[in-house]
């Protein structure tokens, strides 16, 4: 983070709010001319501060109305088991986030589905049939109070 100055932080904050902003509008917003602003954005991309640009979709409009946190305990922690689980997580379109955790469970996943039947199918037919999961605990999300991708800069 020592590479960044106030203009870089302003650029990152602006891009978090709207990654589709034009270079000229971004430059105006952060008090730079267009070319230096463009160079700074490229530098931030090259250094890995900006990983990628995405479109954030409305899951409800796409009929994906059920979300849950699924806590997962593994059968064991050998390399083969972990590789199998990692491969499953990477290929599953239902898993939005998966984090290794300390405590009673090995992982916590945020999962999305169109309805509870699809969620149950994912849990019973997909996740548990991988053969490396000992147990799961599922908490349905009733209402999402906050969801953001913006980091506090």
From the N-terminal CA to the C-terminal CA, the straight-line distance is: 11 Å
Fraction in helix? 25-40%
The CATH architecture of the largest domain comes to 2-Layer Sandwich
Domain count: the total is 2
What is the name of the CATH superfamily of the largest domain? Lrp/AsnC effector binding domain/regulation of amino acid metabolism (RAM) domain
Overall outline: elongated
Strand order of the largest sheet: 2-3-1-4
Tally of alpha and pi helices: 5
Sheet bearing the most strands, described?
4 strands, antiparallel
**Unreliable segments (pLDDT under 50, ≥5 consecutive)?**
none
Number of DSSP-assigned strands: 4
Query: From the helix content, strand content and strand pairing, which structural class follows?
Result: alpha+beta
Order of helices and strands: HHHEHEEHE
List keywords for this structure.
alpha+beta; AsnC family transcriptional regulator; 153 residues; DNA-binding; single chain; WH-like_DNA-bd_sf; elongated; Arc Repressor Mutant, subunit A; Dimeric_a/b-barrel; 4-stranded antiparallel sheet; Alpha-Beta Plaits
Could you explain the architecture of this structure?
The structure is a single chain. By secondary structure, the protein is an alpha+beta fold. The protein has two domains: 41 residues, Winged helix-like DNA-binding domain superfamily/Winged helix DNA-binding domain (Arc Repressor Mutant, subunit A, Orthogonal Bundle), CATH 1.10.10.10; 76 residues, Lrp/AsnC effector binding domain/regulation of amino acid metabolism (RAM) domain (Alpha-Beta Plaits), CATH 3.30.70. Helix content is 37%, strand content 20%. A four-stranded antiparallel β-sheet has the order 2-3-1-4. It is elongated, with a radius of gyration of 20 Å. The N and C termini lie close together (11 Å). GO terms for molecular function: sequence-specific DNA binding. This is AsnC family transcriptional regulator. One of its GO terms (cellular component) is cytosol. Keywords: DNA-binding, Transcription, Transcription regulation. InterPro entries: ArsR-like_HTH, AsnC-type_HTH_dom, Dimeric_a/b-barrel, Tscrpt_reg_AsnC-like, Tscrpt_reg_AsnC/Lrp_C, Tscrpt_reg_HTH_AsnC-type_CS, WH-like_DNA-bd_sf, WH_DNA-bd_sf.
